[in-house]
Amino acid sequence: MDPLTIKSVLVIGPSGNVGRSTIKALLDEKFDVTGLSRTSSQATLPSGVRHVKSDYSEASLREIFKGQDAVISTISSIVVGDALASQKAIINAAIAAGVKVFFPSEYGIDTSDRSASTYVPFLADKIEIMDYLKANEDKISWTALVTGSMFDWGLNIPGFGGWNLSTHSATIFDGGNIPYEATNLDQVGRGIAKCLKNPGLTRNQYVYVNSFTITQNEVLKALEKNMKEGFTVSQGSVEQLWKEGASQVKAGEPLGVLSMLSGAIYGKGNLAHFSSTRGLWNDRLNLPQESLGEFLGEYLAKNV
Ligand SMILES: NC(=O)c1ccc[n+]([C@@H]2O[C@H](COP(=O)([O-])OP(=O)(O)OC[C@H]3O[C@@H](n4cnc5c(N)ncnc54)[C@H](OP(=O)(O)O)[C@@H]3O)[C@@H](O)[C@H]2O)c1
């Protein structure tokens, strides 16, 4: 029996991409679940979840966090605004309320490598929050879930990572044989829930999980097989992809960060192939890996 037992869990940003999957997985694992939204939020949550709202003042958060064992931040990293940086005040309130474990809004590129912000600028905010948590780990434990590319999230954005499912076209970068980690949103949620089931193992750790390790060529083959149609394929270079994004960001176009992110996923900085460098936690957490072909079959039937 783990001496640190987690029963009550509060999710910040419960109706977002990661938030929805997290709520689902926590309910499946029978946690007592609360979702926290901004006062202005129009979010609606599934039954079985307590929904509270806050102006995010420290006093309000402290009150709401009382009695919670864990706080999971799935706060947005949308590049305009300071949502990621606001986690510092959230952590202070969690400490004051006696919360045992805090999950910062990570779920992507491996920020344990401090060079990550060179390749994707908004990761500087994530690294700063990790530094803050490490400096305060005698007061609150943390777990940073690293998931690489959010696979199904990316497929929904035409052009992201070179994929366009509606026009059956793809750009393959540097030959398409670069392995990278990809994790579906539901697997991210399950990863969070499994970490909370094993708090002694996962406290103060970067935890590396995925759905599958894949290459672009494997994805292309699986897409063509499932869609029963060939794709129009063009070739690109990772360096060019990343540089185009960096130039856009420099010119004040925040969405250029999506190309920088894709470049990082396809190998720039070597930040998204952690199964070979850090090792996966899937087995330790009893979190099965998924099959690319099976997943795409189900995903395409529902979404395309
Ligand atoms: N690796 C990848 O490919 C990848 C892809 C997507 C996301 N991610 C990561 O996953 C994390 C969550 O992203 P997401 O896409 O799930 O986020 P999201 O859907 O954009 O937003 C999540 C929630 O954050 C809340 N929120 C937004 N701005 C806020 C603010 N200023 N203060 C407080 N709450 C705010 C909103 O909840 P309410 O309206 O309920 O308040 C929103 O629903 C981020 O760290 C992101 O970088 C990684």
From TrEMBL:
Residue ranges of domain NmrA-like in the record: 7-243
Pfam families: NmrA
Keyword NADP: yes
One MF term in the entry's GO annotations: oxidoreductase activity
Superkingdom per UniProt: Eukaryota
InterPro entries: NAD(P)-bd_dom_sf, NmrA-like, NmrA/Isoflavone_reductase-like, PCBER-like
Keyword annotations of the record: NADP, Oxidoreductase
Annotated Gene3D superfamilies: NAD(P)-binding Rossmann-like Domain, UDP-galactose 4-epimerase, domain 1
PANTHER family: NMRA-LIKE DOMAIN-CONTAINING PROTEIN (PTHR47706:SF10), NMRA-LIKE FAMILY PROTEIN (PTHR47706)
Identification of the protein by name: NmrA-like domain-containing protein
Organism from which the protein derives: Hypocrea atroviridis (strain ATCC 20476 / IMI 206040) (Trichoderma atroviride)
